[in-house]
Amino acid sequence: MLAIRPISFQINSSALAHPLTLSLNSMTNTAGHSYLIDDDESMRTSLGRMLCEVGYIVEDCASAVTFYEKPILVAPALIFLNTLKAVADTSAFDGPQFKRVSENVGAKKDYAALTPREEEVCSWSVKSLFNKGIALQLGNDDVTIKIHKVRVMDEMLPGSMQTLHKKFLRSDLGGLVLG
User: Fold this and answer.
1) Which of 46, 63, 135, 144 has the most crowded Cβ, counting Cβ within 10 A?
2) What is the model's pTM?
């Protein structure tokens, strides 16, 4: 997670002795100043070295409390907070999000493969109309509707009518079909 905090410019000579901080002479050719806050020392060391390699001046702290107790060296600066947790939180968010997007794309692709009449039958089926009711709405007999419904089930691959309903309710097609 990345956060930026407005800070004032001050130099603290004791902070410059920090092992991950570049020397004051190299400040003119830096990519910027960063503060790395993470309770995992190995993460701070590793990320700190990588940031130094690309030209950042790095100050690291084991906690937010430690960060706020230290005098601030340079403003503006980047603040990296609990980086491992941010990666885990992003992964936890992205997994379900990716699954939902994949399901939406799959439902749209399946729906696009239907003929216009199959789309109508699918729409009425999702609205819980029985075959005879759909036949009345579309001016067909129920045998024709059964044939269209079989084709819808073959194209959409839901396995059951309940799964077909769920597929449309969870996807962007829910509004298209039900609306």
Assistant:
1) 135
2) 0.46
